[in-house]
């Protein structure tokens, strides 16, 4: 028969393991893993930023890779991230689609004018409904979507060169680079 | 005991200068809808001010999610429709009441299992001790003090 | 100069704690009489050094020495003196120093009391307390030194978090920590007994008052925090099962179980190893709470700046202290046997059920609190656990506990027959059910199953626990203070149950948009909004609203909630206005400016809510009375008799 006086120390050992793993994961505490990974990207049809008469929609993106970047002119981290986005644009590896989240159009345009426009097009999500569909909760966020329209990766927070190198580039096919 | 709530600057970027408590003046057309609305907004966790439900969270996203709940209820959707809508977008994180699903059911089962184990242990202790009663000649405590 | 002195004092305290731990544990082990004699001076020296360090930090706050990083981060020249002192424990480093200070105070109290304990046992107890002090002092010095300087010094401080600028800050943390830390004494008593390999009924008698005292402080501390949250945050809630609330509640539940199992060990010599385990667990859960609050592994509203390196340190400390104690337990506990027996239905059996249910309740809270971590460790994805889980699951263990309480206090030791008590119980139950359901349906005219059940159980506890004491008084029999204390504590619990179930079911709350002159009716009260005017305080400005409350045309109160903007941190706080009327708390909070001079206002009427906190005070009062019982004084005197100093076989 097992020694029942050993039970507490065994339970405690398990608790320590859980707490240790908790400490290891604590830097990413509060990051909500997206349930969209591996699922079809949400559809959207929104006015284009700067040209409200024109509608931009996710349907036109079918059949190619794209990186949907959620941003807003009110968002400080987006400003920090912007240089990296321009780099991405320059590299030509994947088109950037902007989702301007709960923003004022004229301020957003001024922001792009001042910092440069890395996006193929920007959809203006003024009331934040599309952002909810994408499970957005804090800008900036970036979603990598494949030609089949499946979300393959989500970057929460600033898109850093490190994440670009380690998480996004390996997921993109080589051919994509050659074509553009 | 919910101190420090206003330091809610979770997530990147969204600066919440002067976040206080949200006071949501929504009035649903019927008391029944109002009760369901209040129930759901207290059950859904704010994805940004993560130590709060969306009813009380001052974050902008909480306001958007409240609007979403409102519209869905007014459109005749059920509570589960609302929960599933949120679940599909934000995952299990948004439900303060974990689902009874394969990955979260253990939490609901654990207390009952513990109660069963506790009952078993108590039963064994009582059975063992009740056999010792006749041999036990120790004097009993007299005054009624505990 | 002062901060350096304080830092130096902390280092000396660390060395003295090391000596206290070494002499206290090694002295009895190697039978070195002089080592044993050195323990008490080390205790005294350590306490003086910790007090000196604390004094230095307070002086730095009072003198507005913004060259000290901790002061610069948590104070400001515009901060009133009162908050400059209380700001000491407004953040991680200082609150840790408070923890250490309180541990030193408890240790000195034990050292004074220890003159009446067997010498070697007392040395071991103080030695174990020394290990705990050493760990926390090392933690402070290594990762959380409050005396670090800024170079160059800050021109002014970044101010105390405005949410904490409330009188509640002066009371809640010290009282709560006194409770938390107090369980260290029971832990040390348990370790002392296990180190010497012997534990008798005297041990239980020595330990009981310490546990009761710590429990009473913890009860008050938790209630103060709940009350503070209720009136300060403009939210009107008093409990949210936040990880940090749970962290304080788990030791309370286990401490409550410990009080009851100690009674059995004391009176009948039973449950010895179980009592030891609970003594270890109560403090272990306090330590776990410290870990959860300060390591930042969970999302919580109590945002002490999170730092994984602190988490690693506390976890290592947990492994040494708790792991060590539990290993000692696995080794020594099998030696403890008792020949005593009892029947099903005897008082022992009810106290056993009490313990099982309380420990399961604590385990449930623990599972819910750690669920995000467990889920993460098992790669099951994210999960959130909130009131919709905790409320029903907690009830699952509490309802049987409350139902058994009334019977338990009438059961006799050893024998399971209730005898004439059966009738008493039946009568009181019927009376409670009629009264409870009658009151609930009479006042509210509609039902919510929980409230009549809660009212019935609560009233049953009150009525049935009064039967015996009243009977004794009528027959002019003596009434030991321990009995009075127990009765009062149980009545406190019953009041809390009645209040909680009523609040849960019958709270009236509305968030309304109001323009000047506009009015709203909530729960039979009329609220007229008279607009807002600017206000200004020492370090903030804002707006204050005026609401006139009437009931059927007669004036009830004029409520003036505020919304403040603190200058330094640009943070907005809501100051609620509360009026107590006919058993209800009327709470009003001012929300946002909706434009066109309309404001959002929260109006909330909570019945009996004050009784939740009053009940906690009553429970603590019961504890205080019980521990003043003369039995414990007699026990101390008996312990100095030769029998208590019998040679040890460690």
A few lines on this structure:
The complex is a heterotrimer of chains A (180), B (146) and C (650). By secondary structure, chain B is mainly alpha-helical. Chain B has 4 helices and no strands.
Structural description of this entry:
The complex is a heterotrimer of chains A (180), B (146) and C (650). Chain A has 180 residues and is α/β, with parallel strands linked by helices. Chain A has a single domain, classed as Glutaredoxin. Helix content of chain A is 36%, strand content 22%. Chain A has helices at 7-25, 76-91, 105-115, 129-133, 161-168, 174-179, and strands at 45-48, 51-57, 66-71, 96-101, 121-125, 141-145, 151-156. The longest helix of chain A is centred in the N-terminal third of the chain and has 19 residues, at 7-25. The N and C termini of chain A lie far apart (70 Å). Chain B contains 4 helices and no strands. Chain B has 2 domains: 5-94, Helicase, Ruva Protein, domain 3 (Orthogonal Bundle), CATH 1.10.8.640; 99-135. Chain B has helices spanning 31-43, 60-74, 79-90, 105-132. By secondary structure, chain B is mainly α. Chain C is an alpha+beta fold and 650 residues long. Among the domains of chain C are: 1-160, no CATH class; 508-609, no CATH class. Chain C is built from 19 helices and 10 strands. In chain C, a hairpin with a 5-residue loop joins strand 6 and strand 7. The longest helix of chain C is centred in the first third of the chain and has 32 residues, at 201-232. Chain C starts with a helix and ends in an 11-residue tail after the last helix. The model of chain C is unreliable at 641-650 (pLDDT under 50). Classes of the chains: A alpha/beta (180), B mainly alpha (146), C alpha+beta (650). The interface between B and C is large, with 64 and 94 residues.
What is this structure's SSE topology?
The complex is a heterotrimer of chains A (180), B (146) and C (650).
Chain A: H1 7-25, E1 45-48, E2 51-57, E3 66-71, H2 76-91, E4 96-101, H3 105-115, E5 121-125, H4 129-133, E6 141-145, E7 151-156, H5 161-168, H6 174-179
Parallel strand pairs in A: 3-4, 4-5
Antiparallel strand pairs in A: 1-2, 3-6, 6-7
Chain B: H1 31-43, H2 60-74, H3 79-90, H4 105-132
Chain C: H1 2-30, H2 33-37, H3 39-62, H4 69-74, H5 81-86, H6 92-113, H7 119-143, H8 168-196, H9 201-232, H10 243-268, H11 272-295, H12 308-332, H13 347-377, H14 387-410, H15 421-444, H16 450-474, H17 481-506, E1 508-514, E2 519-522, E3 525-536, E4 540-551, E5 554-559, E6 562-566, E7 572-575, E8 577-581, E9 584-595, E10 598-607, H18 609-627, H19 630-639
């Amino acid at each position: 028969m097992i020694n029942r006086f050993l039970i507490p120390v065994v339970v405690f050992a398990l608790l320590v393991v859980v707490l240790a793993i908790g400490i290891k994961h604590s830097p990413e505490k509060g990051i909500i893993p997206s349930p969209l990974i591996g699922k079809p990207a949400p559809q959207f049809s929104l006015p284009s930023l700067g040209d409200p008469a024109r509608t931009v929609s996710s349907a036109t993106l079918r059949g190619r890779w794209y990186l949907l970047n959620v941003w807003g002119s009110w968002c400080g981290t987006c400003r920090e991230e912007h240089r990296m986005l321009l780099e991405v644009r320059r590299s030509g590896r994947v088109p950037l689609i902007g989702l301007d989240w709960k923003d004022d159009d004229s301020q957003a345009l001024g922001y792009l004018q001042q910092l440069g426009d890395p996006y193929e097009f920007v959809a203006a999500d003024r009331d934040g409904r599309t952002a909810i569909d994408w499970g957005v909760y804090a800008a900036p966020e970036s979603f990598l979507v494949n030609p089949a329209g499946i979300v393959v990766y989500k970057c929460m927070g600033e898109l850093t060169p490190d994440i670009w190198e380690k998480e996004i580039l390996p997921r993109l096919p080589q051919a994509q680079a050659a074509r553009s | 005991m919910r101190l420090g709530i206003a330091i809610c600057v979770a997530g990147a970027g969204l600066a919440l200068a002067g976040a206080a408590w949200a006071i949501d003046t929504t009035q649903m057309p019927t008391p029944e809808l109002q009760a369901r609305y209040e129930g759901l907004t207290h059950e859904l966790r704010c994805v940004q001010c993560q130590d709060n439900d969306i009813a009380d969270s001052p974050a902008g996203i909480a306001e958007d999610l409240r609007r979403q709940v409102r519209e869905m209820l007014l459109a005749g959707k059920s509570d589960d429709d609302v929960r599933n809508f949120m679940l599909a977008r934000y995952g299990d994180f948004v439900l303060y009441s974990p689902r009874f699903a394969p990955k979260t059911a253990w939490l609901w089962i654990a207390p009952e299992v513990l109660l069963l184990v506790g009952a078993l242990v108590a039963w064994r202790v009582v059975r063992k001790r009740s056999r010792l009663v006749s041999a036990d000649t120790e004097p009993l405590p007299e005054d009624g003090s505990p | 100069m002062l901060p350096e002195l304080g830092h130096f004092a902390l280092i000396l305290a660390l060395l003295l704690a090391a000596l206290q731990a070494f002499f206290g544990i090694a002295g009895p082990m190697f039978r070195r009489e002089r080592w044993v004699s050195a323990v008490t001076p080390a205790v005294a020296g350590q306490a003086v050094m910790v007090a000196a360090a604390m004094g230095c930090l307070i002086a730095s706050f009072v003198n507005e020495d913004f060259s000290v990083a901790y002061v610069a981060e948590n104070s400001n020249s515009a901060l009133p003196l009162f908050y400059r002192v209380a700001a000491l424990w407004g953040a991680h480093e200082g609150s840790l120093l408070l923890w250490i200070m309180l541990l030193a105070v408890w240790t000195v109290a034990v050292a004074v009391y220890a003159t009446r304990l067997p010498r070697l046992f007392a040395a071991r107890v103080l030695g174990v307390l020394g290990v705990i002090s050493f760990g926390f002092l090392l933690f402070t010095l290594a990762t959380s030194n409050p005396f670090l300087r800024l170079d160059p010094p800050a021109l002014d401080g970044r101010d105390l978090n405005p949410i904490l600028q409330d009188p509640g800050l002066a009371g809640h943390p010290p009282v709560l920590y006194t409770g938390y830390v107090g369980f260290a004494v029971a832990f040390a008593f348990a370790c002392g007994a296990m180190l010497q390999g012997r534990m008798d009924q005297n041990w239980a008698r020595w330990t009981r008052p310490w546990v009761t005292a710590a429990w009473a402080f913890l009860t008050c501390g938790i209630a103060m925090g709940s009350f503070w949250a209720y009136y300060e945050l403009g939210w009107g809630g008093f409990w949210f099962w936040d990880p940090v609330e749970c962290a304080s509640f788990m030791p309370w539940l286990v401490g409550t179980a410990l009080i009851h199992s100690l009674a059995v060990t004391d009176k009948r010599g039973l449950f010895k190893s179980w009592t030891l385990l609970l003594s270890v667990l109560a403090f272990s859960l306090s330590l776990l709470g410290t870990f959860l609050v300060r390591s930042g592994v969970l999302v919580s509203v109590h945002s002490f700046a999170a730092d994984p390196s602190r988490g690693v340190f506390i976890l290592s400390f947990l492994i040494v202290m708790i792991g060590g104690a539990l290993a000692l337990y696995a080794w020594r506990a099998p030696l403890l046997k008792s020949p005593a027996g009892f029947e099903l239905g005897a008082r022992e059996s009810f106290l056993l059920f009490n313990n099982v249910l309380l420990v399961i309740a604590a385990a449930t809270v623990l599972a819910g609190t750690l669920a995000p971590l467990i889920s993460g460790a098992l790669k099951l994805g994210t999960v959130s656990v909130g009131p919709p889980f905790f409320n029903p699951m907690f009830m699952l263990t509490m309802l049987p506990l409350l139902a058994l309480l009334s019977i338990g206090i009438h059961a006799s030791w050893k024998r399971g027959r209730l005898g004439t008590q059966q009738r008493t119980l039946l009568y009181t139950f019927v009376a409670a059910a009629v009264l409870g359901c009658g009151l609930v349906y009479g006042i509210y005219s509609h039902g919510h199953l929980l409230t009549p059940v809660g009212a019935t159980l609560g009233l049953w506890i009150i009525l049935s626990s009064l039967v015996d004491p009243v009977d004794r008084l009528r027959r002019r029999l003596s009434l030991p203070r321990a009995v009075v204390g127990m009765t009062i504590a149980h009545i406190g619990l019953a009041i809390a149950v009645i209040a909680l179930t009523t609040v849960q079911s019958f709270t009236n709350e509305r968030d309304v948009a109001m323009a000047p002159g506009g009015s709203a009716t909530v729960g039979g009260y009329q609220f007229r909004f008279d607009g807002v005017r600017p206000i200004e305080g020492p370090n903030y400005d804002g707006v204050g609203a005026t609401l006139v409350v009437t009931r059927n045309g007669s004036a009830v109160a004029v409520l003036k909630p505020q919304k403040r903007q603190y200058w330094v941190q640009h943070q907005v706080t809501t100051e609620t206005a509360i009026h107590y009327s006919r058993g209800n708390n009327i709470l009003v909070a001012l929300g946002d400016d909706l434009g066109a001079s309309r404001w959002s206002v929260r109006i909330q009427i909570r019945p009996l809510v004050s009784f939740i906190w009053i009940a906690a005070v009553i429970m603590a009062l019961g504890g205080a009375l019980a521990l003043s019982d003369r039995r414990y004084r007699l026990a101390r005197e008996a312990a100095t008799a030769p029998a208590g100093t019998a040679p040890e076989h460690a």
